[in-house]
Amino acid sequence: AEEGQWVLMATGRSPTNIAVIKYWGKRDEALILPVNDSISVTLDPDHLSATTTVAVSPSFPSDRMWLNGKEISLSGGRFQSCLREIRKRAQDVEDEKKGIRIKKEDWGKLHVHIASYNNFPTAAGLASSAAGLACFVFTLGKLMNVKEDHGELSSIARQGSGSACRSIYGGFVKWCMGKNNDGSDSIAVQLADEAHWNDLVIIIAVVSSKQKETSSTSGMRDSVETSPLLQYRAQTVVPERVLKMEEAIKSRNFESFARLTCADSNQFHAVCLDTSPPIFYMNDTSHRIISLVEKWNQSEGTPRVAYTFDAGPNAVLIAPNRKNATILLQKLLYYFPPQDNDLSSYMVGDKSILS
Ligand code: 2P0
Protein backbone atom coordinates (compact mmCIF):
# COMPACT_ATOMS: atom_id res chain seq x y z
CA ALA A 1 0.00 0.00 0.00
CA GLU A 2 1.07 3.57 -0.65
CA GLU A 3 1.92 5.88 2.20
CA GLY A 4 -1.30 6.53 4.08
CA GLN A 5 -3.16 3.83 2.16
CA TRP A 6 -2.77 1.03 4.66
CA VAL A 7 -5.70 -1.00 5.94
CA LEU A 8 -5.85 -2.58 9.39
CA MET A 9 -8.42 -5.33 9.98
CA ALA A 10 -9.82 -7.59 12.67
CA THR A 11 -12.31 -10.45 12.37
CA GLY A 12 -14.51 -12.02 15.03
CA ARG A 13 -17.40 -14.40 15.40
CA SER A 14 -20.29 -14.35 17.90
CA PRO A 15 -23.14 -16.81 18.35
CA THR A 16 -26.72 -15.87 19.00
CA ASN A 17 -28.37 -16.66 22.32
CA ILE A 18 -31.75 -18.04 23.33
CA ALA A 19 -33.43 -16.52 26.39
CA VAL A 20 -34.95 -18.93 28.91
CA ILE A 21 -36.02 -16.00 31.12
CA LYS A 22 -37.15 -13.37 28.65
CA TYR A 23 -36.22 -9.73 28.29
CA TRP A 24 -39.35 -7.80 27.30
CA GLY A 25 -39.65 -4.11 28.09
CA LYS A 26 -37.32 -1.16 28.57
CA ARG A 27 -37.26 1.41 31.34
CA ASP A 28 -34.94 3.60 29.22
CA GLU A 29 -35.25 3.46 25.42
CA ALA A 30 -32.09 5.39 24.54
CA LEU A 31 -29.70 3.49 26.82
CA ILE A 32 -31.63 0.20 26.40
CA LEU A 33 -32.19 -0.52 30.09
CA PRO A 34 -34.61 -3.41 30.72
CA VAL A 35 -37.46 -3.70 33.23
CA ASN A 36 -36.24 -7.12 34.42
CA ASP A 37 -33.21 -9.43 34.48
CA SER A 38 -33.01 -12.13 31.80
CA ILE A 39 -31.12 -15.41 31.42
CA SER A 40 -30.01 -17.10 28.20
CA VAL A 41 -28.06 -19.96 26.66
CA THR A 42 -25.46 -19.02 24.08
CA LEU A 43 -25.33 -21.39 21.12
CA ASP A 44 -22.20 -22.84 19.57
CA PRO A 45 -20.58 -20.37 17.14
CA ASP A 46 -20.69 -22.96 14.34
CA HIS A 47 -24.43 -22.38 14.17
CA LEU A 48 -26.52 -19.23 14.13
CA SER A 49 -23.61 -16.86 14.45
CA ALA A 50 -22.36 -13.64 12.95
CA THR A 51 -18.86 -13.22 11.53
CA THR A 52 -17.71 -9.64 11.26
CA THR A 53 -14.62 -8.03 9.78
CA VAL A 54 -13.87 -4.46 10.76
CA ALA A 55 -11.32 -2.48 8.75
CA VAL A 56 -9.86 0.94 9.29
CA SER A 57 -7.84 2.99 6.80
CA PRO A 58 -6.94 6.65 6.24
CA SER A 59 -8.27 6.12 2.69
CA PHE A 60 -11.86 5.52 3.91
CA PRO A 61 -13.82 8.80 3.61
CA SER A 62 -16.77 7.59 5.73
CA ASP A 63 -18.05 4.78 7.95
CA ARG A 64 -19.79 2.06 5.90
CA MET A 65 -21.34 -1.32 6.59
CA TRP A 66 -22.32 -4.39 4.58
CA LEU A 67 -24.62 -7.11 5.90
CA ASN A 68 -24.45 -10.41 3.99
CA GLY A 69 -22.76 -8.56 1.14
CA LYS A 70 -25.36 -5.78 0.84
CA GLU A 71 -24.59 -2.27 2.00
CA ILE A 72 -26.85 -1.05 4.80
CA SER A 73 -27.28 2.37 6.33
CA LEU A 74 -25.28 3.22 9.43
CA SER A 75 -27.41 6.21 10.27
CA GLY A 76 -29.34 4.44 13.05
CA GLY A 77 -28.46 5.71 16.49
CA ARG A 78 -27.64 2.28 17.90
CA PHE A 79 -24.65 1.47 15.70
CA GLN A 80 -23.41 4.99 16.24
CA SER A 81 -23.66 4.53 20.02
CA CYS A 82 -21.56 1.37 19.91
CA LEU A 83 -19.03 2.96 17.56
CA ARG A 84 -18.76 6.04 19.76
CA GLU A 85 -18.38 4.06 22.99
CA ILE A 86 -15.64 1.83 21.54
CA ARG A 87 -13.82 4.78 19.91
CA LYS A 88 -13.80 6.56 23.28
CA ARG A 89 -11.90 3.63 24.79
CA ALA A 90 -9.49 3.05 21.88
CA GLN A 91 -5.79 2.70 22.73
CA ASP A 92 -2.51 3.04 20.81
CA VAL A 93 -2.02 0.34 18.17
CA GLU A 94 1.24 -0.62 16.57
CA ASP A 95 1.68 -3.10 13.72
CA GLU A 96 5.42 -3.28 13.13
CA LYS A 97 5.20 -5.59 10.13
CA LYS A 98 2.96 -3.16 8.28
CA GLY A 99 4.71 -0.12 9.71
CA ILE A 100 1.42 1.18 11.12
CA ARG A 101 1.22 3.23 14.28
CA ILE A 102 -2.08 4.67 15.47
CA LYS A 103 -2.09 6.92 18.52
CA LYS A 104 -5.23 6.70 20.61
CA GLU A 105 -6.12 10.33 19.91
CA ASP A 106 -6.05 9.59 16.15
CA TRP A 107 -8.86 6.99 16.17
CA GLY A 108 -11.47 9.74 16.01
CA LYS A 109 -10.19 10.76 12.57
CA LEU A 110 -10.27 7.27 11.07
CA HIS A 111 -13.36 5.77 9.45
CA VAL A 112 -14.34 2.11 9.60
CA HIS A 113 -15.71 -0.37 7.10
CA ILE A 114 -17.69 -3.24 8.57
CA ALA A 115 -18.61 -6.46 6.77
CA SER A 116 -20.86 -8.88 8.64
CA TYR A 117 -22.21 -12.28 7.61
CA ASN A 118 -24.78 -14.48 9.30
CA ASN A 119 -24.19 -18.20 8.78
CA PHE A 120 -27.95 -18.72 8.76
CA PRO A 121 -30.44 -17.19 6.34
CA THR A 122 -31.61 -13.89 7.81
CA ALA A 123 -35.03 -14.48 6.21
CA ALA A 124 -35.67 -17.42 8.54
CA GLY A 125 -36.46 -14.96 11.28
CA LEU A 126 -33.98 -16.56 13.65
CA ALA A 127 -30.95 -14.43 12.97
CA SER A 128 -31.47 -11.92 15.72
CA SER A 129 -29.60 -8.72 16.14
CA ALA A 130 -27.93 -10.25 19.19
CA ALA A 131 -25.09 -12.02 17.41
CA GLY A 132 -24.46 -9.15 14.98
CA LEU A 133 -24.17 -6.36 17.53
CA ALA A 134 -22.16 -8.45 19.99
CA CYS A 135 -19.74 -9.38 17.23
CA PHE A 136 -19.42 -5.81 16.01
CA VAL A 137 -18.60 -4.47 19.49
CA PHE A 138 -16.19 -7.30 20.29
CA THR A 139 -14.32 -7.10 16.97
CA LEU A 140 -14.13 -3.31 16.90
CA GLY A 141 -12.80 -3.45 20.45
CA LYS A 142 -10.11 -5.87 19.32
CA LEU A 143 -9.14 -3.67 16.36
CA MET A 144 -8.93 -0.54 18.50
CA ASN A 145 -7.04 -2.32 21.30
CA VAL A 146 -9.78 -1.60 23.82
CA LYS A 147 -8.76 -2.97 27.23
CA GLU A 148 -12.19 -3.11 28.87
CA ASP A 149 -13.41 -6.40 30.32
CA HIS A 150 -16.35 -8.46 29.04
CA GLY A 151 -18.79 -6.77 31.44
CA GLU A 152 -17.98 -3.35 30.04
CA LEU A 153 -18.16 -4.68 26.45
CA SER A 154 -21.56 -6.22 27.22
CA SER A 155 -22.79 -2.85 28.39
CA ILE A 156 -21.69 -1.32 25.08
CA ALA A 157 -23.26 -4.15 23.03
CA ARG A 158 -26.47 -3.60 25.04
CA GLN A 159 -26.72 -0.14 23.54
CA GLY A 160 -26.78 -1.73 20.07
CA SER A 161 -29.50 -4.26 20.92
CA GLY A 162 -30.56 -5.38 24.39
CA SER A 163 -30.17 -9.12 23.83
CA ALA A 164 -26.71 -8.57 22.26
CA CYS A 165 -25.15 -8.00 25.68
CA ARG A 166 -25.76 -11.67 26.51
CA SER A 167 -23.88 -12.89 23.39
CA ILE A 168 -20.58 -11.48 24.69
CA TYR A 169 -20.23 -14.69 26.72
CA GLY A 170 -20.68 -18.38 25.92
CA GLY A 171 -22.53 -20.81 28.17
CA PHE A 172 -25.30 -19.57 30.48
CA VAL A 173 -25.57 -15.83 30.84
CA LYS A 174 -27.56 -13.41 32.97
CA TRP A 175 -28.25 -9.83 31.95
CA CYS A 176 -28.59 -7.93 35.22
CA MET A 177 -31.05 -5.09 34.72
CA GLY A 178 -29.08 -2.79 37.05
CA LYS A 179 -30.34 0.04 39.21
CA ASN A 180 -28.44 3.05 37.92
CA ASN A 181 -29.98 5.53 35.51
CA ASP A 182 -26.79 5.76 33.43
CA GLY A 183 -26.76 2.04 32.60
CA SER A 184 -23.33 1.47 34.16
CA ASP A 185 -24.59 -1.58 36.07
CA SER A 186 -26.85 -3.00 33.34
CA ILE A 187 -24.37 -5.64 32.20
CA ALA A 188 -24.21 -9.33 31.38
CA VAL A 189 -22.44 -11.85 33.59
CA GLN A 190 -21.59 -15.48 32.86
CA LEU A 191 -23.44 -17.91 35.14
CA ALA A 192 -21.70 -21.04 33.80
CA ASP A 193 -19.28 -21.58 30.93
CA GLU A 194 -19.65 -23.55 27.68
CA ALA A 195 -18.55 -26.82 29.23
CA HIS A 196 -21.27 -26.77 31.89
CA TRP A 197 -24.29 -28.99 31.18
CA ASN A 198 -23.19 -29.65 27.62
CA ASP A 199 -25.36 -32.72 27.18
CA LEU A 200 -28.33 -30.38 26.67
CA VAL A 201 -29.60 -30.62 23.10
CA ILE A 202 -31.28 -27.71 21.33
CA ILE A 203 -33.60 -28.28 18.39
CA ILE A 204 -34.97 -25.32 16.46
CA ALA A 205 -38.13 -26.05 14.55
CA VAL A 206 -38.49 -23.45 11.83
CA VAL A 207 -42.23 -22.89 11.65
CA SER A 208 -42.13 -19.91 9.35
CA SER A 209 -39.34 -18.23 7.47
CA LYS A 210 -41.32 -15.01 7.07
CA GLN A 211 -40.10 -11.84 8.70
CA LYS A 212 -42.01 -11.05 11.88
CA GLU A 213 -44.73 -8.42 11.64
CA THR A 214 -44.02 -6.56 14.87
CA SER A 215 -40.39 -5.76 15.65
CA SER A 216 -39.23 -6.52 19.18
CA THR A 217 -38.35 -2.89 19.74
CA SER A 218 -41.80 -1.51 18.95
CA GLY A 219 -43.60 -4.54 20.42
CA MET A 220 -41.99 -4.14 23.82
CA ARG A 221 -42.58 -0.40 23.76
CA ASP A 222 -46.32 -1.04 23.30
CA SER A 223 -46.26 -3.66 26.07
CA VAL A 224 -44.58 -1.27 28.52
CA GLU A 225 -47.16 1.39 27.74
CA THR A 226 -50.29 -0.76 27.83
CA SER A 227 -49.84 -4.15 29.56
CA PRO A 228 -50.65 -4.35 33.29
CA LEU A 229 -49.36 -7.94 33.22
CA LEU A 230 -45.90 -6.68 32.20
CA GLN A 231 -45.61 -4.66 35.41
CA TYR A 232 -46.61 -7.63 37.54
CA ARG A 233 -44.24 -9.91 35.64
CA ALA A 234 -41.27 -7.56 35.96
CA GLN A 235 -41.78 -6.67 39.61
CA THR A 236 -43.13 -9.88 41.11
CA VAL A 237 -42.60 -12.91 38.88
CA VAL A 238 -39.19 -12.56 37.25
CA PRO A 239 -37.08 -11.71 40.33
CA GLU A 240 -38.06 -14.99 41.99
CA ARG A 241 -37.91 -16.97 38.75
CA VAL A 242 -34.38 -15.75 38.03
CA LEU A 243 -33.15 -17.09 41.38
CA LYS A 244 -34.78 -20.47 40.74
CA MET A 245 -33.37 -20.59 37.20
CA GLU A 246 -29.85 -19.83 38.42
CA GLU A 247 -30.17 -22.67 40.90
CA ALA A 248 -31.55 -25.06 38.24
CA ILE A 249 -28.67 -24.26 35.90
CA LYS A 250 -26.06 -24.60 38.63
CA SER A 251 -27.36 -27.99 39.74
CA ARG A 252 -28.29 -29.16 36.21
CA ASN A 253 -31.84 -29.75 37.40
CA PHE A 254 -33.64 -30.31 34.10
CA GLU A 255 -37.10 -30.64 35.62
CA SER A 256 -36.90 -27.23 37.23
CA PHE A 257 -35.11 -25.73 34.22
CA ALA A 258 -37.82 -26.98 31.84
CA ARG A 259 -40.75 -25.85 34.00
CA LEU A 260 -39.29 -22.37 34.42
CA THR A 261 -38.36 -22.06 30.72
CA CYS A 262 -41.84 -23.04 29.46
CA ALA A 263 -43.63 -20.90 32.04
CA ASP A 264 -41.54 -17.88 31.18
CA SER A 265 -42.05 -18.26 27.43
CA ASN A 266 -45.80 -18.56 28.01
CA GLN A 267 -45.88 -15.52 30.25
CA PHE A 268 -43.92 -13.47 27.74
CA HIS A 269 -46.50 -14.36 25.06
CA ALA A 270 -49.29 -13.63 27.53
CA VAL A 271 -47.82 -10.14 27.98
CA CYS A 272 -47.89 -9.80 24.19
CA LEU A 273 -51.61 -10.71 24.19
CA ASP A 274 -52.15 -8.30 27.09
CA THR A 275 -50.71 -5.49 24.97
CA SER A 276 -53.01 -3.08 23.19
CA PRO A 277 -53.32 -3.75 20.31
CA PRO A 278 -52.42 -7.40 21.05
CA ILE A 279 -49.26 -8.87 19.52
CA PHE A 280 -49.38 -12.42 18.11
CA TYR A 281 -45.95 -13.91 17.62
CA MET A 282 -46.95 -17.58 17.76
CA ASN A 283 -49.22 -19.23 15.20
CA ASP A 284 -51.31 -22.43 15.11
CA THR A 285 -48.25 -24.57 14.43
CA SER A 286 -46.47 -23.05 17.44
CA HIS A 287 -49.50 -23.86 19.59
CA ARG A 288 -49.60 -27.43 18.28
CA ILE A 289 -45.93 -27.89 19.18
CA ILE A 290 -46.64 -26.65 22.72
CA SER A 291 -49.53 -29.12 23.04
CA LEU A 292 -47.39 -31.98 21.77
CA VAL A 293 -44.63 -31.23 24.29
CA GLU A 294 -47.06 -30.60 27.17
CA LYS A 295 -48.90 -33.89 26.54
CA TRP A 296 -45.65 -35.83 26.35
CA ASN A 297 -44.27 -34.19 29.49
CA GLN A 298 -47.49 -34.80 31.40
CA SER A 299 -47.71 -38.44 30.36
CA GLU A 300 -44.18 -39.00 31.66
CA GLY A 301 -44.87 -37.13 34.90
CA THR A 302 -41.69 -35.10 34.48
CA PRO A 303 -40.51 -32.80 31.66
CA ARG A 304 -38.78 -34.61 28.79
CA VAL A 305 -38.19 -31.44 26.83
CA ALA A 306 -38.62 -27.67 27.27
CA TYR A 307 -39.94 -25.22 24.71
CA THR A 308 -39.44 -21.51 24.32
CA PHE A 309 -40.61 -19.05 21.66
CA ASP A 310 -39.22 -15.59 20.93
CA ALA A 311 -40.73 -12.77 18.91
CA GLY A 312 -41.82 -15.14 16.15
CA PRO A 313 -43.50 -18.55 15.63
CA ASN A 314 -40.34 -20.73 15.54
CA ALA A 315 -39.94 -23.21 18.37
CA VAL A 316 -36.75 -23.63 20.33
CA LEU A 317 -36.85 -27.03 22.01
CA ILE A 318 -34.36 -28.04 24.67
CA ALA A 319 -33.83 -31.68 25.59
CA PRO A 320 -31.68 -32.93 28.47
CA ASN A 321 -29.90 -35.52 26.33
CA ARG A 322 -29.64 -37.12 22.86
CA LYS A 323 -32.17 -39.82 23.72
CA ASN A 324 -34.98 -37.38 24.46
CA ALA A 325 -33.97 -35.23 21.50
CA THR A 326 -34.28 -38.24 19.20
CA ILE A 327 -37.75 -39.11 20.51
CA LEU A 328 -38.78 -35.48 20.13
CA LEU A 329 -37.57 -35.41 16.53
CA GLN A 330 -39.53 -38.58 15.78
CA LYS A 331 -42.65 -36.98 17.23
CA LEU A 332 -42.12 -33.77 15.28
CA LEU A 333 -41.60 -35.70 12.05
CA TYR A 334 -44.73 -37.77 12.71
CA TYR A 335 -47.04 -34.87 13.58
CA PHE A 336 -45.47 -32.38 11.19
CA PRO A 337 -44.35 -34.39 8.16
CA PRO A 338 -41.95 -32.27 6.09
CA GLN A 339 -44.25 -32.25 3.03
CA ASP A 340 -46.75 -30.31 5.13
CA ASN A 341 -44.68 -27.30 4.35
CA ASP A 342 -45.81 -26.24 7.75
CA LEU A 343 -42.60 -26.88 9.50
CA SER A 344 -39.88 -26.28 6.99
CA SER A 345 -36.79 -27.52 8.73
CA TYR A 346 -35.32 -28.77 11.94
CA MET A 347 -31.98 -27.82 13.32
CA VAL A 348 -30.56 -30.23 15.82
CA GLY A 349 -27.61 -30.27 18.14
CA ASP A 350 -26.46 -30.03 21.69
CA LYS A 351 -26.18 -26.58 23.16
CA SER A 352 -22.71 -26.37 21.78
CA ILE A 353 -23.53 -28.13 18.50
CA LEU A 354 -26.41 -27.34 16.22
CA SER A 355 -26.32 -29.06 12.87
C1 2P0 B 1 -34.98 -12.10 24.66
N1 2P0 B 1 -36.26 -10.99 22.85
O1 2P0 B 1 -34.76 -12.05 25.90
C2 2P0 B 1 -36.29 -11.51 24.19
C3 2P0 B 1 -37.37 -12.54 24.17
C4 2P0 B 1 -37.34 -11.45 22.06
C5 2P0 B 1 -38.21 -12.23 22.97
O2 2P0 B 1 -34.45 -9.75 23.22
O3 2P0 B 1 -34.95 -3.32 21.14
O4 2P0 B 1 -33.81 -7.43 19.58
O5 2P0 B 1 -32.84 -4.33 20.23
O6 2P0 B 1 -33.23 -4.23 22.69
O7 2P0 B 1 -32.86 -7.42 21.91
C6 2P0 B 1 -35.52 -9.27 21.26
O8 2P0 B 1 -35.28 -7.95 21.54
O9 2P0 B 1 -34.60 -5.73 21.25
C7 2P0 B 1 -35.38 -10.01 22.50
P1 2P0 B 1 -33.87 -4.33 21.35
P2 2P0 B 1 -34.00 -7.16 21.03
O10 2P0 B 1 -34.18 -12.65 23.88
TrEMBL record:
Domain Diphosphomevalonate decarboxylase-like N-terminal stretches? 15-188
Can you tell me which family this protein belongs to? Belongs to the diphosphomevalonate decarboxylase family.
Q: Which UniProt keywords apply?
A: ATP-binding, Lipid biosynthesis, Lipid metabolism, Lyase, Nucleotide-binding, Steroid biosynthesis, Steroid metabolism, Sterol biosynthesis, Sterol metabolism
Per the UniProt record, which EC number(s) apply here?
4.1.1.33
Gene Ontology annotations for the cellular component aspect, listed alphabetically: cytosol
Name by which UniProt lists this protein: Diphosphomevalonate decarboxylase
Species assigned in the record: Oryza meridionalis
Q: What class of enzyme is it?
A: lyase
Out of the domains of life, which is the source? Eukaryota
